[in-house]
């Protein structure tokens, strides 16, 4: 029970002060004039003033509240290295027993794991959330059991009590890690991409380990290449990408005896391979309305280097114009079709027919160019059905269809075949255009001999045929009226999207392969995608970084596309296998934050600890004792840490009794005034 006097004045304090001055002045005046009752009159005035101040006796029934101690246990990945987990668990249990044995004390144990994604250790966030749930006036101390490696120091709250950090690990700990300091997101195919790496040794590095270290570099899970690098210094490593799309590069340095972990001895870089420029040779035959469309389409892309070979005047034309005046310069046909043909990524024959301009030797060279990995696209017009057709040349050996010499000059709407619905060049093409497709007005009748018919036209006859020949690819478009879509005839159609996909497929872009196994990762979850022209596909075998294997069944999400999701338990390189197809993907960050720095250190938390007059101690030196300290005093010393008792309480009941009730004031003041009057009357 606590009691004290409180005042609740009936008048403002300033008014009471003025009245007090008047009473004092009147009393002094009475004293100066020699009035015998001045003391009684002064006491009566003082009593009235005291009554106006409203004095009361306040009695509180208080119940003491316990002090609260926060014990925050770091259970993040870096705390699972060596014997830190057991060391922390033992210290936490011992401290919990000591604190709960203290009188008037409660303990709150808080475990902090890895943050979401790659956020690291969020110790201060956990402390802030715990403080928000407890009355700050009851917090007697905060004790952190951690290696000191946290990643949210900017979230440190203002603490009302001492903060102590008890470090796990030992002073003898050391670790080696591989750091990728610079890795571009893109690399040009066939050119060196320079990556900057560094091997760092932290902690008590033993003699004989420093100096040099071996680094193994593996591209897409292939046979590693080994190089030697100096530790503690940046070194540059040139890497050459040999295919487009995602390239997965893994760097590894061997784990050394005694180091804390080998998890940070490897790093994964996923880099997209892109072409510098697409080199296209466009060979135009007889001029037609669609010729400009091809040229405009190719020239609109800044990444395309276009060489346009146009035949405006056949050699058979007799008009008397001197040969020297037919062109500004002699067209380098020999250079293009013999010497530098391998420099082109794609050759397009647009309504070209044999007129003796390109000798058979040049056509032979184009055929060989295809079989060795080149790409040829033929946009056929009526010339393809004539006696001068390219099919009547050595190029027939690589063409997927034979002309029947029949030409359909009638309107029709191109459509995607059932096989085309599964082929990446034409899959979903109908959804890529808002509205119905416009008609084309001409189609060359061809008989497929090989390849895949992905679009059809008049009476379901083949319109677009794709084929692989040797290492190269060939596409035959049996119409020269694709330009009608570009002109918006009857609403137009997806000409740009079709030709873009067609060109990229011929360039062997991984995203447009008919049979492909790919995966995209978000955090530790990958989405596996299997594209195939078949109606079914088998399971995918996943090989984890530790060598364990697991089969995953895929579900068809659209024609020719099968998907599944898989969450990898570990960070590292995963290998996917489906039949003859293989793929690799890295899960998790290239350098997880939990393993960037693994040596226990309290330097980052030292300013926050010092601000509360707490202490940083190593568990390897022994568990400190716990004692009470007054607020504002040093809360840590040799072998001990302190808690500040808060003396918090809960008020259960309050009683307030007036000390000068009105009736008593009136009675006493009247008696005093009467006494003063009687005293003065005797004189």
UniProtKB/TrEMBL annotation:
<dbReference type="InterPro" id="IPR029062">
    <property type="entry name" value="Class_I_gatase-like"/>
</dbReference>
<keyword id="KW-0812">Transmembrane</keyword>
<feature type="transmembrane region" description="Helical">
    <location>
        <begin position="12"/>
        <end position="31"/>
    </location>
</feature>
<keyword id="KW-1133">Transmembrane helix</keyword>
<feature type="transmembrane region" description="Helical">
    <location>
        <begin position="38"/>
        <end position="57"/>
    </location>
</feature>
<protein>
    <recommendedName>
        <fullName>Glutamine amidotransferase domain-containing protein</fullName>
    </recommendedName>
</protein>
<feature type="transmembrane region" description="Helical">
    <location>
        <begin position="660"/>
        <end position="678"/>
    </location>
</feature>
<keyword id="KW-0472">Membrane</keyword>
């Amino acid at each position: 029970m606590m009691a004290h006097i409180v005042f609740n004045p009936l008048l403002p304090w300033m008014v009471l002060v003025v009245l007090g001055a008047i009473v004092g002045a009147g009393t002094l005046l009475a004293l100066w004039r020699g009035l015998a009752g001045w003391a009684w009159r002064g006491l009566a005035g003082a009593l009235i003033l005291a009554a106006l101040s409203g004095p009361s006796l306040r009695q509180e029934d208080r119940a003491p509240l316990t002090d609260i101690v926060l014990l925050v246990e770091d259970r993040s990945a870096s705390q699972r290295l060596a014997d830190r987990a057991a060391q922390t668990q033992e210290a936490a249990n011992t401290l919990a027993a000591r604190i709960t044995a203290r009188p008037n004390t409660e303990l709150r144990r808080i475990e902090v794991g890895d943050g979401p994604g790659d956020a690291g250790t969020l110790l201060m966030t956990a402390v802030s959330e715990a403080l928000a749930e407890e009355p700050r006036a009851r917090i007697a101390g905060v004790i952190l059991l951690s290696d000191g490696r946290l990643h949210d120091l900017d979230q440190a709250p203002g603490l009302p009590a001492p903060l102590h950090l008890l470090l796990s690990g030992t002073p003898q700990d050391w670790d080696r890690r591989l750091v990728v300091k610079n890795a571009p997101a893109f690399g040009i195919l066939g050119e060196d991409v320079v990556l900057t790496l560094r091997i760092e040794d932290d902690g008590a590095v033993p003699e004989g380990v420093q100096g040099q270290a071996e680094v193994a570099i593996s591209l897409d899970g292939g046979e590693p290449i080994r190089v030697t690098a100096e530790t503690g210094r940046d070194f540059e490593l040139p890497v050459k990408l040999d295919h487009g799309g995602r390239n997965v590069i893994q760097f590894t340095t061997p784990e050394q005896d005694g180091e804390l972990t080998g998890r940070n001895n490897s790093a994964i870089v996923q880099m997209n391979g892109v072409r510098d420029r697409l080199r296209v040779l466009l060979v135009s035959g007889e001029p037609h309305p669609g010729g400009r469309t091809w040229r405009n389409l190719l020239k609109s892309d800044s990444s395309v280097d276009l060489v346009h070979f146009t035949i405006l005047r056949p050699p058979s034309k007799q008009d008397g114009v001197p040969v020297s005046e037919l062109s500004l310069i002699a067209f380098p046909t020999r250079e293009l079709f013999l010497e530098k043909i391998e420099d082109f990524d794609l050759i397009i024959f647009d309504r070209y027919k044999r007129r003796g301009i390109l000798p058979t030797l040049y056509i032979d060279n184009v055929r060989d160019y295809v079989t060795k990995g080149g790409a040829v696209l033929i946009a056929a017009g009526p010339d393809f059905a004539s006696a001068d057709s390219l099919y009547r040349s050595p190029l027939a050996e690589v063409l997927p269809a034979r002309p029947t010499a029949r030409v359909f000059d009638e309107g029709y709407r191109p459509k995607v075949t059932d096989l085309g619905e599964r082929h990446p060049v034409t899959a979903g093409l109908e959804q890529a255009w808002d509205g119905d497709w416009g008609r084309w007005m001409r189609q060359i009748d061809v008989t497929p001999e090989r390849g895949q018919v992905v679009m059809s036209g008049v009476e379901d006859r083949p319109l677009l045929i794709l084929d692989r020949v040797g290492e190269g690819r060939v596409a035959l478009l049996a119409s020269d009226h694709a330009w009608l879509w570009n002109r918006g005839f009857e609403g137009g159609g997806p000409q740009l999207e079709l030709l873009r996909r067609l060109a990229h497929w011929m360039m062997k872009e991984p995203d447009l392969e008919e049979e492909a196994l790919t995966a995209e990762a978000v955090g530790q979850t990958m989405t596996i995608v299997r594209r195939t022209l078949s109606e079914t596909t088998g399971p995918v075998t996943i090989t984890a970084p530790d060598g364990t294997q697991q089969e995953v069944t895929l579900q068809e999400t659209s024609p020719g596309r099968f998907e599944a999701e898989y969450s990898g338990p570990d960070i590292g390189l995963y290998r996917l296998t489906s039949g003859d197809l293989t793929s690799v993907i890295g899960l998790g960050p290239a350098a997880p934050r939990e393993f960037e720095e693994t040596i226990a250190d309290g330097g980052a938390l030292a300013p926050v600890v010092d601000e509360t007059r707490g202490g940083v101690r190593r568990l390897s030196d022994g568990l400190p004792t716990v004692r009470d300290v007054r607020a504002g005093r040093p809360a840590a010393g040799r072998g001990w840490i302190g808690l500040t008792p808060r003396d918090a309480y809960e008020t259960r009941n309050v009683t307030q009794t007036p000390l000068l009730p009105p009736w008593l004031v009136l009675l006493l003041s009247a008696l005093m005034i009467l006494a003063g009057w009687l005293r003065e009357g005797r004189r």
